[in-house]
Amino acid sequence: MREGAHPGRIAAIPAQYVSLEATHGPRSPARDTTAPRVGRKSPQTNTREPIIQEPEAFEPEATRRDADVTESARANRGWWDRNADEYQTEHGTFLGDERFVWCPEGLDEVEAELLGPPEDLKGKDVLEIGAGAAQCARWLAAQGARPVALDLSHRQLQHALRIGAAFPLVQADAGALPFADASFDLACSAYGALPFVADPVLVLRDVHRVLRPGGRFVFSVTHPIRWAFPDEPGPEGLSVSASYFDRTPYVEQHIEDGVGHAVYVEHHRTLGDRVRDVVAAGFRLVDLVEPEWPAWNTSEWGGWSPLRGQLLPGTAIFVCERD
After folding, report:
1. Which end of the chain is more exposed for a tag (fewer CB within 10 A), N or C?
2. pTM of the model as a whole
3. Residue among 28, 30, 35, 27 at smallest CA distance from 65
């Protein structure tokens, strides 16, 4: 995941290029029921390490309020650093160590080919944004691509090292990518960065900048319609409880001296907003994929379930190209 910045690219969290070159070997707090909460993909690896992170010393309050670029970035980097162990333990098996899963529905790049046929990936420079433990980048490397896995969270990238990564791991902000213009042939983000940024256009423009002409960027996010429904897997999650047009961010915060300090922030954009953001960044939208819930997927966690998945779209995948 990643936070964007505007203007001046995140003062609180600079565009640090903390490169974690792979040399070491080959949800959650209380949640609001009126807003979605995602994280990167969904429910597993045999290479598990003990949970060592300290639990929250407070019970966060869930609310809807404005949260700017700096607050969003600071909160989400801290949240993912604190919760990376739990996330990888809960979802690692579903994600696999080297699978490319786009969404909780389980759409796999092997079948989707949203980045192109696997045989065409050989030799391509690919940037994965919001890489987490770099499962997708690892799959790309297996196809002969040259991936770079980028994440805001240092702890998530430590999990990538734990599993093994024979490619660069970079800790940086997606709104200030530490790469030269036209460095990559492809870019991808599976539930990384875009759901959490206060300024998605800034991120999209920077991705556009680092892509070569003809390059493709594919990213998945929670389907915007989900924001109108409670984040519950059962029948209670099928009735509209909020306005789809309310762009107020979902915030988890702790209160200190009467002031709310965000510890997690997620931003809502309507479907039209997402399309306009893509175009404003200079991309051409070539496809919008809404994966259907497959019969084989019986998983239920958070607001994700077969019941909801068979009735409501849960994911929107945007396929964009740089002319």
Report:
1. C
2. 0.84
3. 35
Complete DSSP assignment for 11-63: SSS----EE--S-S----S---TTS----SS----S------SPPPSS-PEEE
Per DSSP, the three-state class of 244 is: coil
pLDDT band at 301 (very low <50, low <70, confident <90, very high): confident
In which band, very low, low, confident or very high, does the pLDDT at 36 lie, cut at 50, 70 and 90?
Answer: very low
Using the 8-state DSSP alphabet, how is residue 152 labeled?
Answer: S
Residue 221 host element (H or E): strand 211-222
Assess contact for 127 and 136: CB atoms under 8 A: no
Strands 184-190 and 211-222: parallel
Mean residue pLDDT of the chain comes to: 85
Show Cβ contacts of residue 31 under 8 Å, excluding neighbours closer than 6 positions: 37, 62, 231, 252, 302
**CA distance readout (Å), 76 to 9, 39, 130, 180, 262:** 16, 10, 12, 26, 9
Longest dimension (CA), the chain: 58
